[in-house]
Amino acid sequence: MSYINIIKIFKMRNLLFQITNEKILKKILKNNYINFYCGFDPTSSSLHIGHLLPLISIKRFQKLGHKPILLIGESTGLIGDPSFKKNERKLQNKIKIKKYTKKIIFQINSILNKNKNNNLIILNNYKWFKNINIINFLEKIGKHFFINNMINKEIIKNRIKNINKNISFTEFSYILLQSYDFLHLYNKYKVFLQIGGSDQWGNIISGINLIKKINKNKVFGLTLPLLIQSNGIKFGKTEKNTIWLDEKKTSPYKFYQFWINTKDSDVYNFLKLFTFINIAKIYKIKKQDKNKKKPIAQTILADKLTYLIHGKNNLISAKRITKSLFNNKLSEMTEYDFYQLKQDGIFTIKINFNNIKYLQEILLISNLSSSYNKAKNMIISKSIKVNGKIESNIYFKFKKKNLIFKKYSLICRGKKNYCLIYWNNSKI
């Protein structure tokens, strides 16, 4: 399939933000597949949902026969990219970055190389930077970068114009390292295209210019849009915390809930951006949703992405938990389901069974009630459920039979106010 089709697909799906020399690139790709790359710096032990757009965009190229190279920046991760950062980044620990690198390589493989037969290459830039001589690097690479141009780049200019915000030479040199990455990948792997987020445009252009100066050849860059939700909040940012792709850091249930709670004003665009559903079908879903009390778009989005990142079993688990909580029927939930709720799914308190057993006390501790009197009235008015069943006894005391898997109890006030009790020392 020709590149013009990819451009068309990206434009139809609102995926294309900026691209260099589109006409020339079309000619090159008219009858050829290309090698392209996208970089990820290992600044944490997991990627997060902010990385989903480049990952899925890579998969789109991959599906059309193009060869992706994913570059893990162990070396650049030690330096820190200053792009659109207000403050100096803290330098990372070498041992920690190495551990992060291994975890992210494993994570990317699990997402993009599930069948073990895709044409995916994952590289680590530490492999070539570890042996570079600083004098040779400055002589051969540094001479092509002019301070006048570098300080006029928006990412640098915004930092140095503020006397209270410094930028170190370490961060300032990041652009040289990333540009060299592109040069190295072009020389060794014939990489003609770099893709990245919109904040990477300046770094990508610098790499393109370096290759042009040294090799006298044209290479290309493409950036994806910065996603702003309809409420004005940058995509991937939540009021509470980051949504990670590692199930140990964000449970599949919470991941699923993030997507199921997508606003109607965002969901159809997200279906274009994050799924492989045909555009015509997305418009059909949108049309059908107008005539339904409960739209299906959010469920489709949550199903597709949870399956992609966490697999079939975790999707089934997330849907089972969602259904069980909605219907107040907990009998179908597994112990792993409760573990996910404890991890980050709902508010959880840990209580020593030998100290507190009375429902009224727990309503106060869990902040489901602000006083004993209110707690008592809630119980009398049948507003409290214990393990999915209404509890109207004001003297209710937790016993062994009220513990699910011998360590959990679920309290609900009204329809949506939950508290999971994790009983410590649950011996009666």
TrEMBL record:
<dbReference type="InterPro" id="IPR024088">
    <property type="entry name" value="Tyr-tRNA-ligase_bac-type"/>
</dbReference>
<keyword id="KW-0067">ATP-binding</keyword>
<feature type="binding site">
    <location>
        <position position="237"/>
    </location>
    <ligand>
        <name>ATP</name>
    </ligand>
</feature>
<dbReference type="GO" id="GO:0005524">
    <property type="term" value="F:ATP binding"/>
</dbReference>
<dbReference type="Pfam" id="PF22421">
    <property type="entry name" value="SYY_C-terminal"/>
</dbReference>
<comment type="similarity">
    <text>Belongs to the class-I aminoacyl-tRNA synthetase family. TyrS type 1 subfamily.</text>
</comment>
<dbReference type="GO" id="GO:0005829">
    <property type="term" value="C:cytosol"/>
</dbReference>
<dbReference type="GO" id="GO:0004831">
    <property type="term" value="F:tyrosine-tRNA ligase activity"/>
</dbReference>
<feature type="short sequence motif" description="'HIGH' region">
    <location>
        <begin position="42"/>
        <end position="51"/>
    </location>
</feature>
<keyword id="KW-0436">Ligase</keyword>
<keyword id="KW-0648">Protein biosynthesis</keyword>
<protein>
    <recommendedName>
        <fullName>Tyrosine--tRNA ligase</fullName>
        <ecNumber>6.1.1.1</ecNumber>
    </recommendedName>
</protein>
<feature type="binding site">
    <location>
        <position position="174"/>
    </location>
    <ligand>
        <name>L-tyrosine</name>
    </ligand>
</feature>
<keyword id="KW-0547">Nucleotide-binding</keyword>
<dbReference type="Pfam" id="PF00579">
    <property type="entry name" value="tRNA-synt_1b"/>
</dbReference>
<feature type="short sequence motif" description="'KMSKS' region">
    <location>
        <begin position="234"/>
        <end position="238"/>
    </location>
</feature>
<dbReference type="InterPro" id="IPR014729">
    <property type="entry name" value="Rossmann-like_a/b/a_fold"/>
</dbReference>
<keyword id="KW-0963">Cytoplasm</keyword>
<dbReference type="InterPro" id="IPR002307">
    <property type="entry name" value="Tyr-tRNA-ligase"/>
</dbReference>
<dbReference type="InterPro" id="IPR024107">
    <property type="entry name" value="Tyr-tRNA-ligase_bac_1"/>
</dbReference>
<comment type="subunit">
    <text>Homodimer.</text>
</comment>
<dbReference type="GO" id="GO:0006437">
    <property type="term" value="P:tyrosyl-tRNA aminoacylation"/>
</dbReference>
<dbReference type="InterPro" id="IPR054608">
    <property type="entry name" value="SYY-like_C"/>
</dbReference>
<feature type="binding site">
    <location>
        <position position="178"/>
    </location>
    <ligand>
        <name>L-tyrosine</name>
    </ligand>
</feature>
<dbReference type="InterPro" id="IPR002305">
    <property type="entry name" value="aa-tRNA-synth_Ic"/>
</dbReference>
<dbReference type="GO" id="GO:0003723">
    <property type="term" value="F:RNA binding"/>
</dbReference>
<feature type="domain" description="Tyrosine--tRNA ligase SYY-like C-terminal">
    <location>
        <begin position="346"/>
        <end position="421"/>
    </location>
</feature>
<keyword id="KW-0030">Aminoacyl-tRNA synthetase</keyword>
<comment type="function">
    <text>Catalyzes the attachment of tyrosine to tRNA(Tyr) in a two-step reaction: tyrosine is first activated by ATP to form Tyr-AMP and then transferred to the acceptor end of tRNA(Tyr).</text>
</comment>
<dbReference type="InterPro" id="IPR036986">
    <property type="entry name" value="S4_RNA-bd_sf"/>
</dbReference>
<feature type="binding site">
    <location>
        <position position="37"/>
    </location>
    <ligand>
        <name>L-tyrosine</name>
    </ligand>
</feature>
<keyword id="KW-0694">RNA-binding</keyword>
